[in-house]
Write the structure tokens for this entry.
Amino acid sequence: MEILQTTAKMQQSQTSTPRAAAEAQSTQQMQRGQIQQDKAAQISSDEKTSKIDSQEKMDHLVEQLNRSLDPFNTTLKFGFDNSSEDFYVSVIETKSNRMLRRFPVEQAQLLLPKMQELHGILFDEKG
């Protein structure tokens, strides 16, 4: 009886070891795939956000941000702050002309597609 139990345990450990190795290998492959996806997303994000280095590009970005904000009927608008060497986008309350927030232009470039997506979700005529 003991021989049967010992044999059964040995067979079970032999079958579970390759299974555990296969699971570990599968997990490693999934992790590698996730790392590759993260790298691809970072490259894609870097390509989308080109460096804004001119007043013309800045004006165009602010115009797009204001257009995407129009349907929300707020007292906010976007402007730009060029008081320093770097470009900054400002959120301005239109009634008092007071600046509420200022952030780097790179963040504004990332904000624009999100605002356009939100506009599409809220005001999509197909829905």
